[in-house]
Each structure stands twice: as structure tokens, then as C-alpha cells.
Amino acid sequence: MKNVTDSVVSLGHWPSAGSFGFNTDIFSTNLINLSVVVGILIFFGKGVLSDLLDNRKQRILNTIRNSEELRGGAIEQLEKARARLRKVEMEADRYRVNGYSEIEREKLELINSTSKTLEQFENYKNETIQFEQQRAINQVRQRVFQQALRGALGTLNSCLNNELHLRTISANIGMFGSMKEITD
């Protein structure tokens, strides 16, 4: 500051400083004006500028501190998300393995059930065939018996005459009579 006041005081020693008027030398007047303005700014603005710079420094430090805290929180959340992802992947693998084993088990159950059903159908088919064969055999036996009976009756009818018929009836009546006596 002393330099500024010295320069202002030394103005009185200049040859043109003795009289009042316009100085047309632009370079010398601008230099003086600039030095006065800069000196005043430095003297009065030093505190304000210092406060502004301190405030700016504190805001920058706070921003850095907040950024570090946010970064730490983000890293923590990222680790949690990675842990959840690993857990979900393991659970998905477990479901996948269980799903495949469940599908295989159900497939085997279906195959076994189908095999049992086919075996039952085969048994029903064999029983039905056996039943139909037995029925056919019984029908053939019945027809053969009926034909044999008709043939025997035909032979008896052709061989029997009235006299033989009457003798047979008498013999049978005699047998029934003797049976009656035995039971009485």
C-alpha cells in the first residue's frame, strides 16, 4: 500500500501536475488509473476475496467428502447386490437341478404307470380271449351233445317199436315199484 500512496504523492512532482487540466497522454493516465484501482482492490478486496476463496474451498471439500461417502455407499450397495445375485444364481441352479430331477422322476413315474396300464390291458385281453375260447368250447360241446342226443334219439326211435317200447316201460315201472318197497 505504501507503494500506491508513494505513487500518488509523487504525482505532485510531475511537471504537468502543477496545473489542473486534461492529460492527453493515454498511456501514462491509464497506468496510473489501473495502479490506483488495483491497489484499492487489493486493499479492500483482500478479505472478501479470501472469504470467497475459503467458502469455495469448503464447498469443494464438502463436495469431495460427500462424493467419498456416496462412493462408499455405492460400493457397499454393489457388494450387497453382488451377494444377492450370487444367492439368486445359486437358488436358480438349485431350482434348475431340482426341476430336472423332478421332471426325470415324473417321467419315470409316467413310464411305470403306462407300463402297468399296458400290462393290465394285456391281462384283460388275455382273460377276454380265454373267456371267449371257453365260451366257444362250451357252445361247441353243447351243439355236439345236442347232435349226439338227437342221433341217439333218432336211433332209439328207429330201433324201438311198440312192443320194445312197452317192455322198456314195464321194466322201468318194475324198478320203481321195487324201489318203493325198499323205501317203505
DSSP E strands, number:
0
Percentage of residues in DSSP E strands = under 5%
**Overall pLDDT, averaged?**
82
The separation of the N and C termini measures 174 Å
Q: Report on the biggest sheet.
A: none
Shape: rod-shaped
Runs with pLDDT <50, length 5+?
7-14
* SSE arrangement, N to C: HHH
Write down the Rg.
68 Å
Q: Please state the structural category.
A: mainly alpha
Instruction: Give the proportion of residues in helices.
Output: over 70%
Number of helices: 3
Describe the secondary structure blueprint for this structure.
Blueprint: H1 2-9, H2 26-159, H3 162-183
Subcellular location: Membrane
Main location: membrane
GO molecular function: proton transmembrane transporter activity
Summarize the structure.
The protein has 184 residues and is mainly alpha-helical. It has helices at residues 2-9, 26-159, 162-183.
Structure overview:
The protein is an all-alpha fold and 184 residues long. The chain has a domain of 124 residues. It is 89% helix and 0% strand. The chain contains three helices and no strands. The N and C termini lie far apart (174 Å).
Fill in the keyword field for this structure.
184 residues, rod-shaped, 89% helix, single chain
